[in-house]
Amino acid sequence: MTSVPSLVRRHQLTAFFSLALGLTWLAFIPFWLSDGDSIPWFTFGPMVAGFIVAALSGGWSSVKAILASMVKWRVHPFWYLVAFGLPFGTQLVSILINPLFGAAAPAWSNVPALSEMLPIIALYAVFSGPLGEEPGWRGFATPRLLASHSALAGSLILGVIWAIWHFPLGLVGDLSLYSTINVVLAGIVFTWLYQNTGSVLLAFIMHVTHQNSVRFLGKAFTGGDYGQQQWIGVAIWAIIAVAIVAYYGTESFVRRPRTQLAAAGAA
To answer: What's the pLDDT tens digit per position in 228-256?
Structure first.
């Protein structure tokens, strides 16, 4: 009879995705019944699933690898600029060019002061996705997907599942088509960041920045102007994703040194 650990070991990704969705969606039921007013949405399903499947399939060494990536901060400063600046810059550019497509001028007074945002951002970082998701999506799933798929294919697979993971929010009216498409595109950008840093910490920072730049800077518009601005943001993320694939290729999203390229060509 096949043991549970050996079964999980052979089907790690299936076990992870099933558990991540199952835990999150089951925990979503009280949130749904309360109309999202009294309790927070449980966003720790991917992290819990990642640690459980890692422990069952690879023991402490697999768990330790995820933990190490969560605190890996020694990376080139450029990648910190990417993690902070790319989501913020994308949102800012979409706001600035929105009036060119007929929107009203941005109402910057609607954007809260930084001193007001920071405590809320800290809470959102823990309870609204980044901490609960990134150890699972990037720390566990990405390395295993890329072991058998190209970076582009693995990113799209993970991006689609990541988008599906959010679907219960549609039951409480907190899901849109542009946000769903954005998640799939972000899957490519997050894989690129992770492949070049090996750091879940950097993915966490990008997740926090992306989520909250949309949440707070988006207040500069309302109604149809807000929706248009978010679609512009999606278009910019699409351009970034295409640029990554065009420059790095589809295989790894990492530029190999010229010596490696020459050796590969001579082989």
So the answer is: 999 999 999 999 999 999 999 999 999 86
| Cα-based distances in Å from 176 to 171, 192, 219, 230, 264 | 11, 25, 16, 10, 45
pLDDT at 258: 45
Tell me the C-alpha to C-alpha distance, in Å, between residue 158 and each of 17, 22, 138, 221. Answer: 9, 16, 9, 31
Contacts of 50 (CB under 8 A, 6+ apart): 16, 20, 66, 135, 136, 139, 140, 141
Q: Please check the confidence at residue 263 and state whether its pLDDT lies above 50.
A: no
Structure tokens belonging to residue 145: 């997907």
Burial classification of residue 206, based on how many CB atoms lie within 10 Å of its CB (0-12 exposed, 13-18 middle, 19 or more buried): buried
The answer to whether the beta carbons of residues 56 and 4 sit under 8 Å apart is yes
Higher pLDDT, 74 or 6: 74
Q: Which two tokens stand for residue 95?
A: 């706001």
Short-list 238, 239, 255, 235, CA closest to 247: 255
Provide the 8-state DSSP code for 129: S
Eight-state DSSP code of residue 11: T
Give CA–CA dist 85/119, Å, rounded.
Answer: 20
For residue 255, what are the contacts with CB-CB under 8 A and spacing of at least 6?
247, 248
- State the helix-helix crossing angle for 151-165 and 177-197, rounded to 10 degrees: 140
Contact assessment for residue 88 and residue 117, using Cβ atoms and an 8 Å cutoff: no
Residue written as token pair 């010229």: 258
Cβ–Cβ < 8 Å for 94, 229: yes
Dihedral class, residue 108 (left if φ above 0, else alpha if ψ from -120 to 50, else beta):
alpha
Residue-wise pLDDT for 203-220, tens only, equals 999 999 999 999 999 999
List the one residue out of 49, 5, 57 whose CA is nearest residue 27: 49
